[in-house]
Amino acid sequence: MFCCRRGVTWRPARRFFTRALLAGTVPAEVTTDRAPAYPRVLGELVPSALHTVGQYANNPIEADHGRLKARLRPMCGLKRHRSARTLAAGQAFVQNLCRDHYDIPTDVPGRHRLRIAFDDLAITI
User: Fold this and answer.
1) Mean of pLDDT values over 33-52
2) What is the DSSP code (8-state) at residue 48?
3) How far is CA 26 from CA 17, 29, 42, 81, in A?
4) Least CB-packed of 45, 75, 99, 125 within 10 Å?
5) Cα 124 to the chain's mean position, in Å?
6) Are strands 2-3 and 50-53 parallel, antiparallel or unpaired?
7) Which residues pair with 53 in a beta bridge?
8) Strand order in the sheet with 29-32
9) How do residues 81-94 score in pLDDT, each as one tens digit?
10) Virtual CA dihedral for 61, 63, 65, 67, nearest 10 degrees?
11) What distance separates the 2 farthest-apart alpha carbons in the chain?
């Protein structure tokens, strides 16, 4: 899912989406604001994608990385790309574990789920 800001003309929008599509897979859904360039560019580059436009439509996307940013602030950023990948992957794993996307600890209360999961993973590894 891509997220873009307002005030973009169609040439920079086309350049952004072209680079984003080259870097990853074709998205099923694209969330943008109401800039008039986006429907034109998305219709040409990704006609199969659902284009979500609306006020507050990108709030879940923006809020998702809030904890990662809170973790990075005291660290004053990261010096290597490998460190960033490791930290982002670990943060995503913990978020998915807390949201019950994995069936690792199913019989424990919510407040103990993370501790039990890490104990089980440490024994497995």
Assistant:
1) 88
2) T
3) 10, 9, 11, 24
4) 125
5) 28
6) unpaired
7) 32
8) 2-3, 29-32, 50-53
9) 888 888 888 887 77
10) -160
11) 54
